[in-house]
């Protein structure tokens, strides 16, 4: 056990449970910051507390006593050692109020023990806190945030505070506050400052520390009652004539009764814990009013002091200190614009609650998709609010107990202005959030049932319910819509697999069936394929239900650009050129015949078409940027073009692909509103103003918001995007000029190493045309591509439908009935509740014992979708939760979607372009064939073949 943990008691019983509580308190403190800013009318967010600095210098010295007691010698605390110190003395309020206002005062020290090691010591001018613990501390801050007059302060202290913490606790807190802030303060050089919370001090165990003025400190005049800055001027005068000196002292821990660790409101009395001087702090004589000194003070004011900026030997202890770790990090990130808080207007809270209740009753009789458009939009918004509240599960792996850390270096300015190669630093306050290797999130708690991994046998499920005998077309979609799905999934999600043959999943086959698992191998009674690599928290022993994403979770075009720096740079032109490498307009080939691009797995003609198209589009954007901004470096051109292409892809998916696959007026309005705001219709705008004011601008006009959990794509999101039935088995390549068929091919003829010879022979124009005029498959039962049920990949032969079923079960995604219930839909009581088709019913009853056993993918395919929807309402609920979240969480699609980052040309490019314009820029020959009244993902007009023997069309 961590040495410090023997002294501590965690809220909720475990460090993990306590961290979740503290994260909520941290968000509450950001709301306090926002309220203080709103109250003061400031443009920028200030510190939650200690906003007004009285003195800030970086040339102080801390000198440890030569006779330092033996047990207090630890780490940097050594006899005679001396270190430079940054000092900030301040008022304690979060508002920049006059110095004569009743208030506590604070001292923050940063002791620079070495270039790599610093220790932050934070203190206030009263020995105990008004709050015993973090919850009381935050509740007090909340009620006082808007108390800017005597009347409001009285209401806050005597009405609101008791309602938050109880009458007895409120009375004790008021007494502490009055005792702490009621004293006359003549000079901050004459105040004593206490740590309140304890820290570990090496082998000495817990201590509290304090800073008291030297015994010979000169007195100060009576404080001014009118000068708002009199404490600053007093310190300026004092430092103009002499050093300011303090003694750094400690009090040793005795026992939990006399010197409690977890109760910040308890005093460590000197008769129980004598004060021992350990060092002297000297602020040398100087003039803090000079221009260089003021510049230093401004720099110090931007620092984030944190008691966790230290080493393990000096780890902070106790509830308040542990809460500070989350609170200080959140507060500092909010202040510096790295983390954001967006308050929900009260009208939205009230109206949304009423609508959720109303639609909850109405939907028992009429589903949302059968309501008039405006009511349907409001209904979908009400559903999304419930899902955001209940269906975002935090899966981030965190430290078991909070750990100290070095002072974090400033963020590299380059990462503020460009997407990183691996997705780090999208959220500047949590650099690893959503990055390559971070865990998939969850929309439900995982269900780990090894006893049901093979029940019913997934091969039987596949053969009886998924296998395609006859192609079922989706008449409203072309094959470009199908391949676009895969193009996007490769950007978003990639479960890492163990190398083939090293660690396998083994699926037992039904009696009498065999499977050839590798080319040339003998038939076996099991189907074998590579297992996914799971994640576990450090020291964790639970089931493997957490998996890392081998792509970043962000919408960053990684399928085009690569997911790490080495791959990304290898795709660019030599010598750091901004353009992507192309050979006569085509992607360069790798040694195995698969093109060199950002994501090369599962390669086939559809992917080749889209990768080639967007590589060309990237290069066109680079050319435009060079022309518009000739002084821009090639590296900046590359990264700016990547931002533009990634955002353009996100826009196409949001306002073109999705309305094509969910082809209703309601979805078209909703998705376009996500990107650019709702239509200029007063009734629609009024409805959104009442329910969700942020929807009035479109997501790019808002601030990032992760809602109730750190951003990550989820295992359930992966499940609903299993849309392999979209892929046909048969393809006809055609000449766009004549409409004449060039060749009839099977899927294996257009995939893998066969792809690029076909692509080069046919050309991008005719390849696009051939995919554009052909129908995608319907997302339904009995329509899984035959070619994918015996598919060679990475040296193994797999039935991808079986793999899909097995992966979903093993990743802990609930079965279909639990899945839909988790999304607040009524449970199925019988098979007939899912479908009325006699053939489907018979097959379902043959395969599954009860409706609760139905696999999620099977249920999603079997469910009758809303009219003109390509997939089910159950899948749609994951979509409405996660689709807007991919935009809303991404700072490059919200707060940094601005000309300073993208350039004016870049934003204009995104605004003016879509899938059709991208196609026509690179293949203008196709203008006559694109749909006139629909997007590029609807079936195109076909060229008319010539009449035999006449040469006429």
From TrEMBL:
UniProt cross-references to SUPFAM superfamilies, sorted A to Z: Heme-dependent catalase-like, Heme-dependent peroxidases
Identify the keywords attached in UniProt to this record, alphabetized. Dioxygenase, Fatty acid biosynthesis, Fatty acid metabolism, Heme, Iron, Lipid biosynthesis, Lipid metabolism, Metal-binding, Oxidoreductase, Oxylipin biosynthesis, Peroxidase, Plant defense
InterPro entries the UniProt entry points to: A_dioxygenase (IPR034815), Catalase_sf (IPR020835), Haem_peroxidase_animal (IPR019791), Haem_peroxidase_sf (IPR010255), Haem_peroxidase_sf_animal (IPR037120), Oxylipin_biosynth_metab (IPR050783)
Q: Which GO terms describe its molecular function?
A: peroxidase activity
Q: Which cofactor does it need?
A: Ca(2+)
Q: Is Oxidoreductase among the key words of this record?
A: yes
List the protein's name. Answer: Peroxidase family protein
Q: Which organism is it from?
A: Nonomuraea insulae
């Amino acid at each position: 056990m961590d040495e410090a943990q023997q002294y501590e008691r965690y809220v909720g019983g475990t460090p993990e449970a306590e961290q979740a509580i503290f994260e909520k308190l941290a968000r509450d403190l950001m709301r306090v910051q926002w309220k203080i800013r709103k109250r003061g009318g400031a443009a920028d967010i200030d510190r939650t507390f200690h906003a007004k600095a009285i003195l800030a210098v970086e040339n102080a010295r801390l000198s440890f006593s030569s006779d330092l007691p033996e047990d207090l010698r630890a780490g940097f605390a050594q006899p005679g050692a001396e270190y430079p110190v940054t000092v900030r003395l301040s008022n304690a309020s979060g508002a920049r109020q006059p110095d004569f206002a009743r208030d506590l005062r604070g001292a923050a020290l940063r002791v620079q023990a070495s270039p790599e090691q610093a220790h932050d010591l934070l203190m206030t001018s009263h020995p105990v806190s008004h709050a015993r613990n973090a919850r009381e501390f935050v509740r007090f801050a909340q009620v006082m945030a808007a108390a800017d007059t005597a009347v409001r302060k009285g209401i806050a202290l005597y009405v609101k505070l008791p309602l938050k913490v109880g009458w007895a606790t409120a009375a004790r807190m008021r007494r502490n506050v009055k005792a702490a802030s009621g004293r006359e303060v003549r000079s901050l050089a004459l105040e004593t400052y206490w740590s309140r919370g304890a820290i570990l001090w090496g082998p000495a165990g817990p201590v509290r520390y304090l800073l008291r003025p030297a015994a010979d400190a000169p007195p100060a005049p009576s404080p001014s009652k009118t000068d708002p800055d009199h404490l600053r001027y007093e310190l300026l005068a004092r430092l103009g004539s002499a050093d300011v000196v303090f003694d750094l002292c400690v009090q040793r821990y005795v026992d939990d009764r006399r010197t409690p660790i977890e109760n910040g409101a308890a005093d460590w009395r000197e008769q129980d814990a004598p004060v021992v001087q350990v060092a002297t702090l000297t602020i040398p004589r100087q003039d803090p009013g000079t221009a260089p000194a003021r510049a230093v003070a401004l720099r110090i004011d931007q620092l984030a002091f944190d008691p966790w900026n230290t080493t393990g030997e000096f780890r902070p202890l106790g509830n308040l200190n542990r809460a500070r770790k989350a609170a200080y990090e959140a507060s500092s990130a909010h202040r510096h614009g790295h983390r954001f808080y967006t308050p929900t207007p009260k009208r939205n809270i009230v109206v949304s609650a009423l609508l959720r209740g109303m639609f909850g009753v109405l939907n028992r009789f009429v589903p949302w998709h059968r309501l008039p458009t405006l009511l349907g939009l409001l209904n979908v918004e009400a559903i999304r609010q419930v899902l955001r509240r209940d269906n975002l599960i935090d899966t981030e792996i965190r430290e078991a107990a909070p750990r100290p850390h070095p002072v974090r270096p400033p963020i590299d300015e380059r990462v503020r202005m460009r997407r990183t190669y691996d997705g780090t630093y999208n959220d500047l306050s949590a650099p690893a959030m959503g990055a390559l290797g971070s865990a998939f999130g969850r929309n439900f708690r995982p269900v780990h049932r090894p006893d049901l991994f093979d029940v019913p046998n997934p091969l039987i499920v596949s053969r009886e319910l998924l296998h395609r005998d006859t192609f079922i077309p989706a008449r409203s979609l072309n094959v470009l819509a199908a391949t676009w799905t895969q193009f996007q999934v490769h950007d978003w999600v990639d479960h890492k697999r163990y190398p083939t043959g090293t660690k396998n999943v083994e699926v037992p086959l039904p009696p009498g069936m065999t499977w050839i698992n590798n080319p040339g191998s003998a038939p076996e009674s099991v189907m074998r394929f590579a297992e996914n690599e799971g994640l576990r928290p450090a020291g964790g022993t639970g089931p493997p239900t957490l998996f890392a994403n081998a792509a970043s979770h962000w919408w960053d075009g990684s399928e085009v650009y690569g997911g790490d720096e080495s791959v990304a740079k290898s795709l660019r032109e030599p010598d750091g050129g901004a353009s992507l490498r192309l050979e006569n307009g085509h992607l360069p080939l790798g040694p195995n015949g698969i093109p060199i691009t950002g994501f090369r797995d599962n390669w086939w003609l559809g992917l080749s078409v889209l990768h080639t198209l967007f590589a060309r589009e990237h290069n066109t954007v680079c050319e435009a940027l060079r022309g518009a901004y000739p002084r821009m470096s090639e590296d900046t051109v590359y990264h700016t073009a990547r931002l533009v292409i990634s955002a353009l892809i996100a826009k196409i998916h949001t306002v073109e692909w999705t309305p094509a696959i969910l082809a209703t007026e309601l979805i078209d309005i909703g998705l376009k509103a996500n990107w650019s705001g709702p239509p200029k219709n007063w009734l629609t705008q009024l409805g959104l103003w009442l329910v969700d004011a942020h929807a009035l601008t479109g997501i790019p006009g808002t601030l990032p918001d992760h809602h109730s959990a750190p951003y990550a794509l989820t295992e359930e999101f992966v499940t609903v995007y299993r849309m392999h039935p979209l892929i046909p088995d048969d393809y006809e390549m055609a000449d766009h000029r004549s409409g004449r068929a060039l060749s009839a091919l099977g899927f294996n003829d257009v995939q893998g190493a066969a792809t690029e010879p076909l692509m080069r022979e046919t050309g991008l124009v005719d390849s696009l045309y051939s995919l554009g005029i052909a129908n995608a498959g319907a997302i339904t039962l009995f329509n899984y591509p035959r070619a994918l049920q015996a598919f060679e990949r990475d040296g193994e032969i797999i039935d991808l439908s079986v793999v899909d079923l097995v992966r979903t079960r093993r990743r802990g995604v609930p079965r279909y009935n639990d899945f839909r219930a988790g999304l607040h839909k009524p449970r199925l009581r019988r098979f007939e509740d899912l479908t009325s088709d006699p053939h489907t019913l018979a097959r379902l009853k043959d395969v599954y014992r009860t409706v609760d056993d139905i696999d999620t993918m099977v249920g999603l395919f079997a469910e009758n979708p809303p009219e003109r929807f390509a997939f089910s309402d159950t899948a749609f609920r994951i979509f409405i939760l996660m689709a807007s979240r991919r935009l809303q969480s991404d700072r490059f699609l919200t707060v940094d979607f601005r000309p300073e980052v993208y350039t004016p040309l870049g934003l204009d490019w995104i605004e003016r372009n879509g899938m059709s314009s991208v196609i026509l820029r690179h293949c203008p020959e196709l203008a006559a064939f694109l749909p006139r009244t629909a997007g590029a993902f609807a079936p195109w007009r076909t060229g008319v073949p010539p009449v035999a023997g006449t040469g006429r069309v």
